[in-house]
Amino acid sequence: QVLILKGLKQEVSCLCPSPDGLHLAVGYEDGSIRVFSLLSGEVNITFNGHKAAVTTLQYDHLGGRLVSGSKDTDVIVWDVINESGLYRLRGHKDAVTQVLFLKEKNLLVTSGKDTLVKWWDLDTQHCFKTLVGHRTEVWGMALISEEKRLITGSADSELRVWDITYIQEGKDPDEPESKKSKGSSSGAEENTEEDETLELDEHPEEVSSVFHAVYQSSSSLRLVKCSRVGSIMREGRDRVVTLATDQTGKILACHGTDAVLEVFSVLSEEEVQKKLEKKMKKAKKKAKQNSEEEPERSVELSLQEEIQRVTNIRASSKIKSFDLILSPKGELKIVLLLQNNIIESYNLNLSAQVPQAVRASRITIGGHRSDVRTLAFSSDNIAILSAAAESVKIWNRSTLQCIRTMDCEYALCSLFVPGDRQVIIGTKTGKLQLYDLASGSLMETLNAHDGAVWSIALSPDQRGFVTGGADKCVKFWEFELVKDESSVQKRLSMKHVRILQLDEDVLCVRYSPKQTLLAVSLLDCTVKIFYVDTLKFFLSLYGHKLPVLCMDISYDGTLIATGSADRSVKIWGLDFGDCHRSLFAHDDSVMYLQFVAKSHLFFTAGKDSKIKQWDADKFEHIQTLEGHHQEVWCLALSPNGDYVVSASHDKSLRLWERTREPLVLEEEREMQREAEYEESVAKEDQPVVAGETQGETGLAGKKTIETIKAAERIMEAIELYREEMAKLQEHKAICKAAGKEV
After folding, report:
1. CB-based contact 702:696 (threshold 8 Å)
2. Could you tell me the CA-to-CA distances from 429 to 120, 378, 447, 592 in Å, in that order?
3. Residue 34: enclosing H or E segment and its boundaries?
4. Which of 278, 272, 282, 281 is CA-nearest to residue 302?
5. Top-ranked range on mean pLDDT: pick from 129-143, 170-184, 560-574, 682-696
6. Which H/E stretch holds residue 560?
7. Cα–Cα distance for residue pair 469/507, rounded to 1 Å
8. Distance (Å, rounded) from C-alpha 283 to C-alpha 498?
9. Which portions of the chain have biased composition (kind: Basic and acidic residues) (predicted)?
10. Can you tell me whether residue 55 is helix, strand or coil?
11. Are 183 and 230 spatial neighbours (Cβ–Cβ below 8 Å)?
12. Higher per-residue confidence, 293 vs 103
């Protein structure tokens, strides 16, 4: 790792390096774009114009302009040098998926989920051509053969190929052009009629659209023609996710939602000519052998011969994104970002007889391959345990480095054994796994439950623990030392001592601090409280509409807080089981809840990607920790209450630290109101139907609180200027009447 570019809280949605390689444009989920310097790592420019996530970015060949497409259906062209927006292009009816600048010509091509490919003249800022030959969303585009061909990828297994031709001034637009070496896999022939701009392919199911579009540029009147040549068939049956070429345009690659990257080679004009000559010689030779006359008609290359399949690269998991570089020696370097948090690098020797991709390296050790479902802090606040479907990792809190990785089954719950030398994992298959941290080895596996072990809780006396599972049982366990067969020393083990049978699946279990009561959350939406010594029933807490997924008991044993899939948190008294208050906590299920040590404050984590802090005495929302981009599955508080660690579906673990800065609730409320107001301001300008706008072009800016305040300040300044000018005129009039010089 050589550099980290730090943005704000929003998720990065797309990247685009500048042509000089010194800057990186980064698009975010909130619609903002930041341009980072790769030398200093600092943000040089921030552009704000989109109302939704930026989906695609592209620099022009000089790096002076940047174009962005978004989920809000708009395309915006930015001036990187002046750090300002030039104009907004409207026309797509759904999210923009790809934008491409044409070198030398001031043209832009955009594709969208509305099945359209649009051509824009940037001199006059209008759309002069729309390709409508796609039945489904256009997910990707690429320009090849020195920008004389356009390739589009959609939701089927076809890559459609289009020829681009520019007809200069003075040439009859309907005059048939000299056919260049192009072959259609469908054998399509042009049937251009006068005053007609549509041509039919021999494909019965598709209409290929040929557009003669006249547009005025500063240099001359030009005519652009775009006609469908044919299709290249992909092996993947699903939609195209990424379609791209290398910088030279010689290599084309694409992938779908699976683990296969398909690589194609595009022949240059010289190579096409050589192939044609070779083919012509063969045809003449064949004609001589059959003692026929020389073939009169010109030999044509098929599309598959011009764009040849090189190989398929199968990655270890589903591909999310890729990039490729063709070295001057002819070696192709490909880097893949995979869905399971791995980066893989492949080398491909194109000069070989049968090119085979060789995996050069991979970055894996950083994190988990799947979602982390359980977290735990050690008693000294230093080590953090995280466990997922394939491994358990121990992290050092201060250095943020992973210090142990151990293979496990699908983990659902975990705890550090007192002493912090061993950890216990509860799995989806009903097993308890005991690991030794010093050696990183699995010491013991017990079949604890017949179903998933949903919850585990350490007893306050630290002599044992309790587990709750999908087999409707709560089981009590004690730690014991047993003789190890392989060594003289005794080792730690777990002994099952008691069982509590219930009528429903157990989702969560918690001890009261004095170990007198045990709270058990059941699938029937209730929480049952039992005496620990006799296992007699004490209280039933009912009121949630959906099952209680998490709960915790305060340090003094007076309160129990329960978080449910019905999005609410209820605070109950443990003396009589009365509900003190019900709080609407999250916009989705509450996944985890834990009290801060020695206080009545507690944290909740929700599927709405937020972590919130609450006061159980005043029933107030204190603050929201925003940073995760997807569902938060679990969190853990350090025993001293200074740290919170959280795990999310966005594949990240986030560590939060308590600062000494006092938190003023009124300020928090004010900031929340401002954020809500800004959101409502942004929505004011949005049309009811996406893409339905007044006109094709517009200003690149976006209305925010800052722009409203700036406009108000300008209006105040103008008003002040008018007042001062009026005073000056009045003063002049008085002086003139008095016969004095002003």
Report:
1. no
2. 57, 25, 9, 21
3. strand 32-37
4. 272
5. 560-574
6. strand 559-564
7. 7
8. 88
9. 170-180, 677-686
10. strand
11. yes
12. 103
Q: Tell which wins on pLDDT, 271 or 643.
A: 643
Give 368's contacts (C-beta < 8 A, 6+ positions apart).
341, 386, 388, 390, 391, 393, 651
Amino acid in the structure at residue 175: E
Those residues whose C-beta lies under 8 Å from the C-beta of residue 564, and which sit 6 or more positions away, are 525, 544, 545, 546, 547, 548, 549, 570, 589, 590
Q: Which helix (H) or strand (E) holds 38?
A: none
Q: For all residues of the chain together, what is the average pLDDT? A: 85
User: Which helix (H) or strand (E) covers residue 453, if one does?
Assistant: strand 453-458
Q: Which of 122, 158, 164 is nearest to 139 (CA)?
A: 158
Sign of CA dihedral 174, 175, 180, 184: positive
Q: How far apart are the first and last CA of the chain?
A: 70
Reported as half-sphere exposure (CB side, CA atoms, 13 A), residue 157 has a value of 8
- For helices 705-738 and 665-684, angle between their N-to-C axes, nearest 10 degrees: 90
Residue 161 banded pLDDT, cuts 50, 70, 90: very high
Can you tell me the distance from the alpha carbon of 142 to that of 262, in angstroms, rounded to the nearest whole number? 14
Q: Rounded to two decimals, what is the model's pTM? A: 0.76
Q: What angle do CA 560, 565, 569 make, to 5 degrees?
A: 35
What digits encode the pLDDT tens for the residues 502-549? 999 999 999 999 999 999 999 999 999 999 999 999 999 999 999 999
Backbone dihedral region of 499: left (phi > 0), alpha (psi from -120 to 50 degrees) or beta? beta
Q: What is the pLDDT of residues 109-153, one digit of tens each?
A: 999 999 999 999 998 888 888 888 888 999 999 998 888 889 999
The H-assigned helical ranges of 74-141 are none
Which pairs with CB-CB distance under 8 Å and at least 24 residues apart come from 623-632?
Answer: 623/663, 623/668, 624/672, 625/656, 626/9, 627/9, 627/654, 628/652, 628/654, 629/10, 629/11, 629/29, 631/588, 631/591, 631/606, 631/607, 632/591, 632/592, 632/605, 632/606, 632/607
CA separation for the pair 681, 179 (Å, rounded): 55
Q: 740 or 308, which is more confident? A: 308
As a whole number of Å, the CA-based R_g of the chain is: 33
Give 296: exposed, middle or buried? Use CB within 10 Å, 0-12, 13-18, 19+. Answer: exposed
Beta-bridged to residue 529, according to DSSP, are: 519, 539
Burial classification of residue 67, based on how many CB atoms lie within 10 Å of its CB (0-12 exposed, 13-18 middle, 19 or more buried):
buried
Percent of the residues in the chain that have a pLDDT greater than 70, as a whole number: 89
